[in-house]
Amino acid sequence: MRVPRKSEPEYYTDQVLPILLRRRVLQLTKFDYRLSSNLDDELQKLRCRVNYHALKFTKSINELGQKLVMRMRQMTERFVAVHLRFEPDMLAFSGCYYGGGDKERYELAEIRKRWATLPDLSPDGERKRGKCPLTPHEVGLMLRALGFANDTYLYVASGEIYGGEETLRPLRELFPNFYTKEMLANEELKPLLPFSSRLAAVDYIVSDESDVFVTNNNGNMAKILAGRRRYMGHKRTIRPNAKRLSALFMARDQMDWDTFAKKVKSCQRGFMGEPEDMRLGRGDNEDDEVFPD
């Protein structure tokens, strides 16, 4: 059954429920999750219980994820999971420029050509609006400025990184105790290699178990994990205030480290995953109006 866009709660009661009761099972297509904005507190709590308790991984994926958590714990008492969304197609969609010169502009433009309906975006404008995911180097600088020492253990959850090892090198130099699922699992990961969603599930499990979860973007996985970590018992989730940080990163060479660190801490107030940090997403379009926490 296809539900009209932005249907009121009464529509589900009057039109959907009778069919569900008669047929016993019902698939809703084009389901509008923004209905959540109009629900009262008790129904919101029920929605959280359904969402976070319903997600179950297969035994093999769950066991592998827990093995990687155990291997991280064998090396350190506490570890930070960093979710890096920095894939080539993701950057092309973002319309952002990351300083790679003509080579970067050409490569990302070629990817964008595959989707002729994508609008033209201003790279500088997108960055100023906070729409560009942080680079691995920027994530590292943010963490160091926030007080994470270079002996902090990082688990880096990611897919294919644009620029590969060269892009990751600055983050590795800032945090030498740098691990990925590929580094921890070796042969055990081979059966999952053809399936990106299964690889993401392993990253999800390890990130969920981390002591601190950090994201370079505000995408779906980051939002789901932030919400789950709050719902299941508060664990810190750091989301970058990209709109304010972008100007700071561009001016990094114009200030000393102590000044930079002080400004990063100021930018990140309210984005550090404190228990009281509860707010509706305030995006530039209505699709951002979800509950990230």
From TrEMBL:
Pfam families: O-FucT
Keyword DNA damage: no
InterPro entries (UniProt xref): FucosylTrfase_pln, GDP-Fuc_O-FucTrfase
Location of the region described as Disordered in the Swiss-Prot/TrEMBL record: 273-293
Any GO molecular function: glycosyltransferase activity
Single Gene Ontology BP annotation: fucose metabolic process
Top-level taxon of the source organism: Eukaryota
Keywords: Carbohydrate metabolism, Fucose metabolism, Glycosyltransferase, Transferase
Alphabetical list of PANTHER family matching this protein: O-FUCOSYLTRANSFERASE 16, O-FUCOSYLTRANSFERASE 29
Similarity-based family: Belongs to the glycosyltransferase GT106 family.
Protein name (Swiss-Prot/TrEMBL): O-fucosyltransferase family protein
